[in-house]
Structures are given as C-alpha cells and as structure tokens.
C-alpha cells in the first residue's frame, strides 16, 4: 500500500492521474460485469424456482392420480374375485342339484 501511495505521490501528477483514471475505469468495468452476472444468476434462480414449484404441483397431482388408479385397480380385483365366487357357487349348486 505504501509503495502504491509513493508511486502516486510522484511529481508526474498528470501521468499518475491518468493511470488512476485507467485503473478506476477497469474497476468500474469489473464491477458492472459482476453486477450483470449476479442479475443473470437471479433470473436463473427465478426460473429454477418456478420450475420447482411446477414440479411440486405436478408431483402432487401424480400422487393423487396414482392413489385413484390403485383404488380402482383394487376394486376391479375384488369384483373379479366376487364374480368367480358367485360362478363357483352357481356351478356347485347346479352340480349338486
């Protein structure tokens, strides 16, 4: 820091001011670039958040539909067993009588 201070305190003030100005412009350019990158990340995070929200909604719908289909399948299996039992009872009734 002392070395930088001494170099700017030199008698060649105009050259030093130009050098300082150039360095400040470089710093400003880098800061603007960093801010732009942060803004892009923010936009990407917003998109990611909306996709996550959509995924959550879709997974809840999938869970609800899966439960409904599972219940419907169980009813179909129970109905098939009941029909087989009724047919077996009818067959035994006509076979015995």
TrEMBL record:
It is a single-pass type IV membrane protein. One of its GO terms (molecular function) is SNAP receptor activity. It comes from Elysia marginata. Coiled coil: none annotated. The chain crosses the membrane at residues 74-96. It holds the Pfam family Synaptobrevin. It comes from the Eukaryota. PROSITE patterns: V_SNARE. SUPFAM superfamilies: SNARE fusion complex. Residues 16-76 form the V-SNARE coiled-coil homology domain. It is found in: Endomembrane system. This is Vesicle-trafficking protein SEC22b. GO terms for cellular component: cytoplasm; endomembrane system; membrane. Keywords: Coiled coil, ER-Golgi transport, Membrane, Protein transport, Transmembrane, Transmembrane helix, Transport. GO terms for biological process: endoplasmic reticulum to Golgi vesicle-mediated transport; protein transport; retrograde vesicle-mediated transport, Golgi to endoplasmic reticulum.
């Amino acid at each position: 820091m002392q070395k930088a201070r001494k170099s700017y305190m030199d008698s060649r003030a105009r050259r030093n001011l130009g050098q300082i100005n150039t360095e400040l412009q470089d710093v400003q350019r880098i800061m603007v670039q960093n801010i732009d990158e942060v803004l892009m990340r923010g936009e990407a995070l917003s998109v990611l958040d909306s996709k996550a929200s959509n995924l959550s909604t879709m997974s809840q719908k999938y869970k609800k539909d899966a439960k409904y289909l599972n219940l419907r399948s169980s009813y179909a299996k129970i109905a098939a067993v009941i029909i087989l039992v009724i047919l077996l009872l009818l067959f035994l009734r006509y076979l015995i009588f």
